[in-house]
Write a sequence for this structure.
């Protein structure tokens, strides 16, 4: 039997993409229409945003822990969170969690190392890009990183919160990302971390100047393989 995956969600579009990836790609490992058991819980995105805006990461963690406990109570075996930004709160709650977590940046950094990337561009919300969520995991593997400049961070942040979390995709926003990533490529980046789980809805290997590290799908695949390889 495979393990039961618990999804601690935050924003709908990223969580939905993660869930769909687990279910669709599960069939490749288990057979037609098959996938591990999956349960998802989320508090309102507005609750998370209020906590983030006042820089209260303990409160963000409390919301995550609330979801974790609900998922544990219905039989989940381990947890994933398809939201990069709120991983900043994971250190506040991990020791109190009823279940183990797969860390999204750990998954992405492991994949980046396996592919031989040496200097990656970071994209995501302003809060995520300015945090140590990815630098810590990348640096541990000897991978350099480059953050967008302040104006670029603001442009990406606006696209995420005004468009992507609502499922709105525009060619103008693709162009904004392409211009930013082209500049970062010129500064030596050989790949880009799509460090917001909605960015893969907009950017991918076909329209990005840099090879993409899709945090949403990489996390989903890591969860899928962990669940399927269980000895249970």
């Amino acid at each position: 039997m495979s393990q039961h995956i618990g999804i601690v969600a935050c924003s709908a579009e990223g969580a939905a993409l993660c869930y769909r990836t687990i279910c669709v790609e599960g069939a490749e490992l288990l057979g037609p229409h098959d996938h591990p058991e999956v349960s998802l819980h989320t508090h309102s995105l507005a609750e998370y945003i209020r906590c983030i805006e006042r820089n209260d990461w303990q409160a963000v963690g409390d919301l995550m822990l609330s979801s974790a406990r609900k998922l544990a109570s219905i039989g989940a075996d381990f947890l994933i969170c398809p939201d990069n930004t709120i991983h900043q709160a994971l250190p506040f709650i991990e020791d109190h969690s009823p279940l183990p977590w797969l860390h999204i940046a750990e998954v992405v950094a492991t994949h980046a190392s396996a592919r031989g990337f040496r200097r990656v561009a970071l994209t995501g919300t302003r809060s995520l890009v300015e945090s140590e969520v990815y630098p810590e995991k990348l640096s541990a593997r000897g991978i350099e990183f480059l953050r967008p400049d302040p104006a670029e961070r603001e442009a990406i942040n606006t696209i995420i919160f005004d468009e992507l979390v609502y499922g709105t995709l525009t060619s103008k926003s693709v162009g904004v990302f392409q211009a930013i990533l082209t500049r970062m490529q010129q500064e030596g980046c050989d790949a880009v971390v799509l460090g917001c789980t909605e960015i893969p809805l907009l950017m991918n290997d076909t329209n990005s100047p840099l090879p993409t590290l899709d945090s949403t799908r990489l996390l989903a695949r890591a969860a899928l393989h962990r669940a399927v390889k269980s000895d249970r």
Summary: The domain at 5-103+218-228 is CATH 3.40.50.1860 (Rossmann fold). The chain has two domains: 5-103+218-228, 104-214. Residues 12-30 form the longest helix (19 residues).
